[in-house]
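Sorry, any thoughts here?
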Amino acid sequence: MYDGSQNFIGGTNEKGRTKNEKEELKYLTIKKLVETNGSKKRAAIKLDCSIRSINRMIVGYKLEGKEFFLHGNRGRKPAHALSEEEKTEIEQLYTSKYFDCTYTSFAEYLAENEKYLFIY
């Protein structure tokens, strides 16, 4: 989502850009492309994507506007995230019962004895 103004809200990606910067760049590029009937190839190079993706973004922009460029999982908690109760329980186990373990052996003990499986 965006905050109602012209600003997106988001985190960072692997290239160091924030999601909102990446989404904003896509939005502004496609907006300019549609308004000025610019070059799809140039836009594809600028956004590092295919011309087919540019065509998809143009259609999305025309149908939904700025909302199209927002990531669908924005604001949702990941499906694999632990609940606050589980986090508290694991923290208490580490500080009381397994305080002398390394993180690797602690994860192994949790998998064997406490039924928490962590892939590391």
In short: DSSP finds five helices and no strands in the chain.
